[in-house]
Amino acid sequence: MAKVIMVQGTTSNAGKSLITAALCRIFKQDGYRTAPFKSQNMALNSFITKEGLEMGRAQVMQAEAAGIDADVRMNPILLKPTGEKGSQVILNGEVLRDMTAQEYYTCKNELVPHILKSFNSLTDEYDIIVIEGAGSPAEINLKQQDIVNMGMAKMVDAPVIIVGDIDRGGVFASLAGTMLLFDEEEKSRVKGFVINKFRGDVEILKPGLDMLRDITNVDVLGVVPYLNVDIDDEDSLSEKLVSNETYNIIDIAVIRLPRISNFTDFNVFSMIKGVSLRYVKNLRELGNPDMIIIPGTKNTIEDLKWLRQSGLESKIIRHVSEGKAVFGVCGGYQMLGEMINDPDNVEAGGSIKGLGLLKNITTFYKQKTRTQVSGKINEINGFYHELSGIDVTGYEIHMGDTEILEGDFLNTIDVSAGESNNKYDGCVCDNVAGSYIHGIFDNSDVVNSVVNILLKQKGMSVDELEKFDIKSYKESQYDLLADSVRKSLDMGKIYNALGTVSLTSRSED
Question: Which residues are named in the active-site annotation (predicted)?
């Protein structure tokens, strides 16, 4: 059976996901087969496994850090918010149903067997499981039905590390306050604190660390600096979604739709030296970029209405008329077409005109498409010609089918569940392109070609920027994360909490 450790945080965005990923990488480096786990995730950023099952992207990122393939067992419950008080509930990778918060709260206990089945099967295959909590573990009004923080720790008898974010202030109060709200059994599980996102001189902080230990009787395992690592962040509070005024040689603007999903699709552009990636939500922030991307959304029709009301639609159309690039992914691809029909009331019902920049029509159906895909981009004429013949992989997750009336096609093969079906996953009309493929820009040849196209459009040489290898870059960032966290934490105490030692240390002995 695997050893287990759990990472909880005093708040959302305290850094639980990154600390979990760092530990997964460190344990892998130390010779252990390691897997991440999160019983319940709430996010609009999701991933489709090779079996066609849906899970949160944070555990995909953590699995990458651990050097393993993503598995839906690592995230048995995914909540995708549909409004202020409800979510689509994904159980074991498949849609269960839409629920209000109250409905979900009352049925949580029924989901425990599914959580334990997934977790226990992972413990048979790995040496260490690193569990991530959600939000704060000290929500006393929710404690009775908790299945993701201390409730999960109790189910699997996990020792716990609590992460606090010092960058936002109040870290000592939040850590001490969290302990105050735990019962005695919960307090006994806490093996240490991690103070995260620190900027400054640690020596000045040390007296506070000593006082915190005296107050809580819990050791501080380390102080992690504010890390400049480039790793996917699925949280809606992600700093990546904050508009900035940075402009590089190539300027790419992503429309920050109100219900934006899978914004990690575009992170690769921010990794390339000389390319700026900005998320914008109004005309002032948009400016005059080289390329506009319309991302995926949980509600295409409502976000299309917002795009229209905000004035961004007319600006995008003008941008196209000036010969500049536009690319839509998933819901953004649907918006670029001529019409969206919703006869089954999957979203708002009825029909709505699209931007009319691609010659296609989308119709929503109740069944969700979930599949990994691979294939080759067909011959493309004009603006995006350089993409012709490139091999692509990625995944689809959407409601609706799109009939392409005119344009160059993006041809892929459905590889879900062992099937191989030729189909069209997008189309191109001159300088406007769209695709259902999430992760299309994670193909190095695709992203390098897009950057080259934008350079040529500006009359610049393709030699202005280096070729980019996303896989090598990601590996280097995971190693950087692990090295920084290893230097900051007392890994001996973490291994003691696990009840084991580093294989590296053991071999040296």
Answer: 330, 438
Pairing of strands 40-42, 77-81: parallel
Give the pTM: 0.86
The H or E element spanning position 194 is strand 190-198
- Assess whether 256 and 350 both reside in one domain: yes
CB atoms within 10 A of CB 487: 11
Cα three-residue angle 487-493-496, rounded to 5 degrees? 135
Number of domains in the chain: 2
Are residues 157 and 48 part of one domain?
A: yes
- 183 within a domain of the structure (yes/no): yes
- Report d(CA 155, CA 508) in Å as an integer: 35
Domain residue limits at 202: 3-231+475-502
Express each pLDDT in 190-249 by its tens digit.
Answer: 999 999 999 988 999 999 999 999 999 999 999 999 988 888 876 554 555 665 566 789
478 close to 60: Cβ distance less than 8 angstroms:
no
Is 470 a member of any domain? no
Catalytic, out of 24, 427, 429, 438? 438
Q: Give the integer Cα–Cα distance in Å for 274 and 247.
A: 9
Mention every residue, 6+ apart, whose C-beta is less than 8 A from residue 386: 449, 452, 453
Active site includes 438?
yes
Helix (H) / strand (E) element for 23: namely helix 16-29
- Quote the CA–CA distance of 206 and 211 in Å, as a whole number: 9
For residue 469, tell me if it sits in a domain: no
User: Among residues 330, 398, 427, 429, which one is catalytic?
Assistant: 330
C-alpha 470/C-alpha 371 separation (Å) is 22
- Tell me, yes or no, whether 30 lies in a domain: yes
Q: Give me the half-sphere count of Cα atoms (radius 13 Å) on the Cβ side of residue 266.
A: 28
pLDDT in tens, 370-383: 989 888 888 888 99
Q: Looking at the structure, do residues 175 and 211 belong to the same domain, yes or no?
A: yes
